[in-house]
Design a protein that fits this description.
0% strand, 3 domains, 173 residues, mainly alpha, 7 helices
Length: 173
Amino acid sequence: MDIQVASNFERYLYYLLDQNTENVAAKMADFSERKVMEFSAVQMAKVHEEFTASFADDEETVKTIRSFHEETGYILDPHTAVGVAVGRRVRNPEYPLVCLATAHPAKFGDAVHEAIGSDPAMPPAFNDLTAREKKVTQISAETEKSRPTWHNMQSSFRQENTLFRNLGVNLHT
């Protein structure tokens, strides 16, 4: 998966380009080849009406984790903290601000510890993680030689992912 080109971006293009799938396919192909996507002035005006972009540096991110925890008791992960910081900064006060958490704070223990002075709790399903059996499979770096092993590993991963999901753990966060 190329997270630099998210599937919801292609979905947005579909609506921006008047639900014309041929134009979307052409834009995506051109982008894949040239790494550039160009839009008309009318299309860009629509994008600017619908989106605001900003950022939060490391210092603001840590401060947001800390203040949000002090205000609510909830521990934000750094990615979500960026969203909250930016949302608070650019929001229209006539509307409620809704931010959805993007990861578990335990994935970013060092950043969370810096912000709140303690480590975030691990999800209960991970309590015995370090005591579990470790499985390692070395595979050839040559694609054709590693393909059968890779397919077996994918099948095994799907089974384990189902097990983790049943334990309440999402391995994709």
